[in-house]
Write a structure and sequence with these properties.
It comes from Antiquaquibacter soli. The protein is of the alpha+beta class. The chain has seven helices and 20 strands. The protein has three domains: 190 residues, HUPs (Rossmann fold, 3-Layer(aba) Sandwich); 58 residues, SH3 type barrels (Roll); 83 residues, Translation factors (Elongation Factor Tu (Ef-tu), domain 3). A hairpin with a 4-residue loop joins strand 10 and strand 11.
Length: 366
C-alpha cells in the first residue's frame, strides 16, 4: 500500500513510520506545521509539532530512506481547533482540543489530502488497534497497552476514516518497548519526553490566554439557590469541578470546600456548591458519531469514558431522535458540557458524543 506516515517528531510516530516501512509499504513521511509564527506552539517536553519536532521527524525519515514533506495546516488548525477552543469556552463549555485536532486535522484535512494524492492509508503513532470483523467491517479497539491506550481521543473517527487508518503500535505491550526499538534503530529521539498540555498556549497559562481572547469581565459567584457568595474576574477561566481560584473568602456552612458546578456565560455567573453536587446521573449530546457499524438497537449496555485517562464505567446508552443519551450505572463526577463521552462495548470503541447537557444526581435545594 501507499502509506502517508504522520510524523510529529516524537518517538511513537517515528517507530510507527519505521514499522510501516518494514511491512513493505510505500511510505512517505509528512510533518504538519500548525503555526506560521515560531513560539506560538509549546516546545520541548510540553508541546508537539514545533520547528524542533519537524527537524527530528526529518532526521528519522532520512534514516528510513523515505521522502519527507512539511505541510502547512496552520490556517485549518487555527480555524478548526484554536477558534473552536475559544468559542467553546465563550459558551461556558470545556473543550478537548486534542480531540478536535484528531477529528478535524489528522483524520479529516490530512486524510482528505492523502486520499486526493493517491495514498491508501494514513499511519500514526497512536496506541489503538483496528480489528476487521467476519464481514470485513473495520472496528476501532483499545491498544494492548491499556496504560498508553489512546482509543479515547480517536473515538471521533468514522467508519470511512477507519478504512484508511493505520496504527502500527496498537499491539505493542508497552511504551518502554517502543523506546527500546527506537534506540535499536539509532533514532536520537528514543528518550524524547512525551508531549502534553495544550500545544497552542506557549506558556501554559490557559486562564491568561483565554482572557486575552474571550475577555475577563468581573461577575458574581453564586450558589445553587442563586445567592451571591463572591465575585470572579472572568467566567470563561472556570471549568466544572474546579476548586482553586474561587476566592470566596469564607467557608460554606458545613465547612466543606466548594466546587464549580456550572458556568453561565450569558449572565456571567459561576455556580458553586458541595462536592456531592458534582455527581451526574445522565449526559447527552446531539453531536454524535459511530466508529464503524452503528449499534443495531436504540438502547444498549456499554461503558462510557469521559476523559482520556479516566476509567470506563458501566452505563446504558440510548439513541433518541436528536441525541445520544448515556446513563451511567453509578453517577459520574464533575462532568462538563463540551467534554467528549466515548462509548465502548468491551474493548471496541462504538462511538462518541460531545456533551451538550448533564442531569445532576443531586436535586437543587428548595
Amino acid at each position: 500500500m501507499k502509506v502517508l506516515a504522520a510524523m510529529s517528531g516524537g518517538v511513537d510516530s517515528a517507530v510507527a513510520a519505521a514499522r510501516a516501512v518494514d511491512a513493505g509499504h510505500d511510505v512517505v513521511g509528512v510533518h504538519l506545521a500548525l503555526s506560521r509564527q515560531p513560539g506560538t506552539l509549546r516546545t520541548g517536553a510540553r508541546g508537539c509539532c514545533t520547528i524542533e519536532d519537524s527537524m527530528d521527524a526529518r532526521r528519522v525519515a532520512g534514516m528510513l530512506g523515505i521522502p519527507f514533506y512539511v505541510w502547512d495546516f496552520s490556517e485549518r488548525f487555527a480555524a478548526d481547533v484554536v477558534d473552536d477552543f475559544v468559542a467553546e469556552y465563550s459558551a461556558g463549555r470545556t473543550p478537548n482540543p486534542c480531540m478536535r485536532c484528531n477529528e478535524r486535522i489528522k483524520f479529516a484535512a490530512l486524510l482528505d489530502k492523502a486520499l486526493a494524492l493517491g495514498f491508501d492509508a494514513v499511519a500514526t503513532g497512536h496506541y489503538a488497534s483496528i480489528v476487521t470483523d467476519a464481514d470485513g467491517n473495520r472496528e476501532l479497539h483499545r491498544a494492548a497497552a491499556w496504560a498508553k491506550d489512546q482509543s479515547y481521543v480517536l473515538g471521533v473517527l468514522t467508519a470511512e476514516q477507519l478504512e484508511h487508518a493505520m496504527f502500527p503500535l496498537g499491539a505493542t505491550p508497552s511504551k518502554a518497548e517502543v523506546r527500546a526499538e527506537a534506540a535499536a534503530r539509532g533514532f536520537d529521539l528514543a528518550q524524547k519526553p512525551d508531549s502534553h498540555d495544550i500545544c497552542f498556549i506557549p506558556d501554559g497559562d490557559t486562564r491568561g490566554w483565554l482572557a486575552g481572547r474571550v475577555g475577563a469581565e468581573p461577575g458574581p459567584i453564586v450558589d445553587r439557590s442563586g445567592a451571591v457568595l463572591g465575585t470572579h474576574e472572568g467566567a470563561a477561566a472556570f471549568t466544572v469541578g474546579q476548586r482553586k481560584g474561587l476566592s470566596i473568602g469564607y467557608p460554606a456552612e458545613d465547612g466543606k470546600p466548594r466546587f464549580v458546578l456550572e458556568v453561565r456565560p450569558k449572565t456571567n455567573e459561576v455556580v458553586v456548591g458541595p462536592r456531592e453536587a458534582l455527581a451526574v446521573a445522565e449526559i447527552a449530546g446531539s453531536r454524535y458519531t459511530w466508529a464503524g457499524i452503528p449499534p443495531q438497537s436504540s438502547s444498549f449496555d456499554c461503558e462510557v469514558q469521559i476523559r482520556a485517562h479516566a476509567d470506563p464505567v458501566p452505563a446504558v446508552a440510548a439513541v433518541t431522535e436528536h441525541e445520544l443519551v448515556i446513563t451511567p450505572v453509578d453517577p459520574l463526577d464533575g462532568v462538563a458540557p463540551g467534554q467528549t463521552a466515548v462509548v465502548y462495548v468491551g474493548t471496541r470503541v462504538l462511538g462518541q458524543c460531545t456533551i451538550d447537557r448533564t442531569v445532576s444526581a443531586v436535586p437543587v435545594p428548595a
